[in-house]
């Protein structure tokens, strides 16, 4: 059973699993708090096929700063490597 991390973590089990894989607390919390981050089956879609506006929304969700000045290619790179 996963430790209860309080209201700041939505999915305690996912958070603990990500921490065990070596992710930082910040990254594990961000992923555990995203409602669609753990969907399986390739439902997320490829980043290359998304519009710049969709990529901006994704960047906002995961906390990337300066997205409004980025080109689409730069957004894709930052999202993949965040």
A few lines on this structure:
The protein is mainly α and 82 residues long. The protein contains four helices and no strands.
Q: Can you lay out the helices and strands and say which pair or pack?
A:
Blueprint: H1 12-20, H2 25-32, H3 52-62, H4 72-80
Descriptive account of the structure:
The structure is a single chain. This protein has 82 residues and is mostly helical. It is 45% helix and 0% strand. It has helices at 12-20, 25-32, 52-62, 72-80. α1 runs antiparallel to α2 (25-32) and α3 (52-62) runs parallel beside α4. The N and C termini lie far apart (29 Å). The model has no long low-confidence stretch (mean pLDDT 82). It comes from Parapedobacter deserti.
Q: What order do the helices and strands follow?
A: HHHH
Task: Domain count, please report it.
Answer: 2
Q: How much is the average pLDDT?
A: 82
Tell me the number of helical segments per DSSP (H or I, 4 or more residues long). 4
Q: How many distinct beta strands?
A: 0
């Amino acid at each position: 059973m996963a430790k209860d991390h309080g209201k700041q973590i939505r999915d305690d089990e996912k958070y603990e699993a990500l921490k065990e894989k070596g992710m930082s607390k910040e990254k594990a919390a961000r992923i555990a708090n995203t409602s669609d981050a753990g969907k399986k089956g390739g439902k997320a879609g490829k980043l290359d096929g998304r519009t710049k506006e969709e990529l901006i929304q994704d960047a906002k969700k995961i906390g990337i700063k300066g997205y409004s000045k980025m080109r689409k290619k730069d957004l894709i790179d930052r999202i993949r490597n965040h």
